[in-house]
Amino acid sequence: MPEHPTHPDQIEPLEKWAAGRDGAAIWLNATGIAIGDAGIAILGVPGSGKSSLALSLIAMGATLIADDGLWLDPDTDPPRLRRPDTAQDLIEARGIGLLRAGPTRATAPLTILVDLDRAEPHRLPPRRYVATGDGRYPLILGAGNHTLAPALFLMARLGRAEP
């Protein structure tokens, strides 16, 4: 029988991940990818698997915005992930080196945030969100999730069912 969590939605402020600012723009120590028009920010400490997850998604057809650092413009509607001016078309493959990522994308609307520092303790979790301005965006706790890449790819393309 499926589990049906009774937890209310959980909302966290985006500023929790802010590593710097330039005016309204927020610097995130994150890797950004786009799947169609869906921008995904992959957050986590060094070594948590940001680039590895992005590599898996790129192999499925995603496009790199930037590896290991990107801007979020919170004042746009919706907020947009933005490639730094100095970013190259490179992504780190641990144990292999820097790889060309193919065509990159300068910007994409924020659609999903992934936190690789925390594991999801629930099989069918409560809805988690990150809030910025008047918007809220799905937050996925992804540490140790071996099906994370294909699940994110489907979520970005087709959405998530309501509980």
Automatic annotation (TrEMBL):
One of its GO terms (biological process) is regulation of carbohydrate metabolic process. Keywords: Kinase, Transferase. SUPFAM superfamilies: PEP carboxykinase-like. Residues 33-99 form the HPr kinase/phosphorylase C-terminal domain. Pfam families: Hpr_kinase_C. GO terms for molecular function: ATP binding; phosphorelay sensor kinase activity. Coiled coil: none annotated. This is HPr kinase. It comes from Roseicyclus marinus. The lineage of its organism: Bacteria, Pseudomonadati, Pseudomonadota, Alphaproteobacteria, Rhodobacterales.
